[in-house]
């Protein structure tokens, strides 16, 4: 099945929580998500504090929901905000994907250690990024 732009519509998330301090990153993610997953509810937050509030207000979470967060944002814990967010969210059993524009292998390792299910660097190809996310969600639902 394809949307009006001819892009494939994929089985994907129910709720998508986009957490990034950069408006441009959230905008690109939102545009691609709307094309690939037209039925998904998209929530946005600029930092971990906003994310926790939005997640708590969004209602019950399901296995189809996903949190996509940057690792370096303001608030909660300065440069490790995304990592602090991961440790707070882990107890909610919300699948966590860490997407960093730049970062060290140590940051990726720490995110995985804290419970992120998938960690990857953003390379600007948001469409391919979300195709990977969709495959990851389908895999998680099958196990």
Give a verbal description of the structure.
This protein is an alpha/beta fold and about 140 residues long. It has a single domain, classed as Rossmann fold (3-Layer(aba) Sandwich). Helices cover about 40% and strands about 15% of the residues. It is built from five helices and five strands. The protein has helices at about 25-35, 50-55, 80-90, 105-115, 125-140; strands at about 15-20, 40-45, 65-70, 95-100, 120. It has a five-stranded parallel sheet, sandwiched between helices. Strand 1, helix 1 and strand 2 form a beta-alpha-beta unit. Helix 1 crosses helix 5 (about 125-140), helix 2 packs parallel to helix 3 (about 80-90) and helix 3 (about 80-90) packs parallel to helix 4. The longest helix is centred in the C-terminal third of the chain and has 17 residues, at about 125-140. The protein starts with 14 loop residues before the first strand and ends with a helix.
Which secondary structure elements does this structure contain, and how are they paired or packed?
Blueprint: E1 15-19, H1 23-36, E2 41-45, H2 48-57, E3 66-69, H3 81-89, E4 96-100, H4 105-114, E5 118-121, H5 126-142
Parallel strand pairs: 1-2, 1-3, 3-4, 4-5
Provide the succession of SSEs.
EHEHEHEHEH
Instruction: Report low-confidence residues grouped into runs of 5 or more.
Output: none
Principal-axis shape equals globular
CATH architecture designation: 3-Layer(aba) Sandwich
Quaternary state of this entry equals: single chain
Give the count of helical stretches: 5
Give the CATH superfamily.
Response regulator
CATH topology tier name: Rossmann fold
Q: Tell me, what is the CATH class?
A: Alpha Beta
- SS class: alpha/beta
The strands making up the biggest β-sheet line up spatially as 2-1-3-4-5
**What is the overall pLDDT average?**
74
In total, the number of domains comes to 1
- Give Rg in angstroms: 14 Å
Largest sheet, if any?
5 strands, parallel
How far is it from the N-terminal to the C-terminal residue, by CA? 25 Å
Q: Strand fraction band? A: 15-25%
Helix content: 40-55%
Total number of strands:
5
